[in-house]
Amino acid sequence: MKIGIILGSTRQGRVSPQVGAWVKEIADKHGDAEYEIVDIADFNLPFLGAAEGQENVAAWNEKLASLDGFVFVVAEYNHSITGALKNALDSARETWNNKAAGIVSYGSTGGARAAEHLRGILGELQVADVRVHPTLSLFTDFENFTTFKPSSLHLENINAMLDQVVAWSTALKTIRG
């Protein structure tokens, strides 16, 4: 199993790389799959429908096709996911289908509203999102809202989410052929 840890923010000063590195460190110890960080910022995706940058969209789809499942690191901006993540989701279609995903969200309310929006989008893309959803608070899991210092209580939820992502990814691989 190959699981991509998708960094869902591209903003300057973002904290998603810190959260993603933490998830990957736990995932690597968890085992059961090969994990890699996939930063949407690295793909420089054009807005959906733009004539320019289609080679970047092709590279994005190729990366997604190589993965069996996902863990989305989701920042909550204005009660939803980032525009960059929505564009990245929309820039692929079939490459998302019949795969599983976990969500790790962060924000003032743990990113819960962004995660709920993401769940609806994933359903449309035929991605099975798992139940366990670690939520990180900007107030208690970040120092000065910028330096990630997660509480140890999240470790159990991260591992339970990874268990579910690997199980569902394994099951769904059988119908992708």
What would you note in describing this structure?
- Helix 1 packs across helix 5 (154-176).
- Strands 1, 2, 3, 4, 5 and 6 form a 6-stranded parallel β-sheet that branches. A two-stranded antiparallel ribbon has the order 7-8.
- The chain is α/β, with parallel strands linked by helices and 177 residues long.
- Strand 7 (142-143) and strand 8 form a beta hairpin.
- The chain contains 5 helices and 8 strands; from the N terminus they run βαβαβαβαββββα.
- It is globular and about 40 Å long.
- The two termini are 14 Å apart.
Strand content: 15-25%
Amino- and carboxy-terminal Cα gap: 14 Å
**Alpha plus pi helix count:** 5
- Given as residue ranges, the uncertain stretches (5+ residues, pLDDT < 50) are none
The major sheet is characterized as: 6 strands, parallel
The ordered H/E elements are EHEHEHEHEEEEH
**Average predicted confidence as pLDDT:** 95
Q: Report the C-alpha radius of gyration, rounded.
A: 15 Å
Shape: globular
* Structural class estimated from helices and strands: alpha/beta
Question: How many E strands?
Answer: 8
Helix content: 40-55%
